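job 3f2a | input accepted
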Amino acid sequence: MRQVILDTETTGLSHATGDRIIEIGCVEVIDRRLTDRTFHYYINPERDIDAGAFAVHGLSREFLSDKPLFANIIEELIEFVDGAEIVIHNAAFDLGFLDNEFALLKRPPFRGLASKITDTLLDARQMFPGKRNSLDALCDRFSISNEHRTLHGALLDAQLLAEVYIAMTRGQEDLSIDLIDYTVDNEEMESTSKSLPTNLKLIAASADEIAQHEKILGEIAKSSKKDPVWSPLSETQN
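job 3f2a | predicted structure (238 res):
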């Protein structure tokens, strides 16, 4: 499964009033693993940057003045995202700007390139109702370091979002191997046990290893929308 995690920075909050995209960053994820493929451009918007937006991303009109226009990067963008599931945090915002840029170039809407669009903000609100679900809040919740994020940046935010998305979706479905039926009859069990070596050494887990194991189980349980498969077993043992 191929996914593209995407983020943009803009001159302001509303493409309807003329704001434009000034940075776009994408990272590729295949089968839940980050690849080395990225797509990243700063873009000349040919207009001023709102003071509020500049405070968020620190990108000035002067810095962007020698960067390519959106028209110069559109074909490469299409090639990178075409056919993938696109994952965005607050998708309505980014898609509105991307569709607008495509419309200005008389192209069909950007969202039509995606096989599926996933909005991690909407998903996070369902998983953690009533809590803060900004990218920073989710990084903190899933113990993903964002100490290097002093300002918003499209590529950096896409990379962080990729880690957050993988953590958010690391649930019970990934443990299907544990549900395989390994039932054997008594005769087979007895035959197997006779063939095992008798000098096996039992090595107990250290306190640190047990703590790490419990931490991972806790993170999986926290990010899963369903009760973990080990809960009934745990309750029985207790």
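job 3f2a | Residues 172-194, 233-238 have pLDDT under 50 and may be disordered.
job 3f2a | closed
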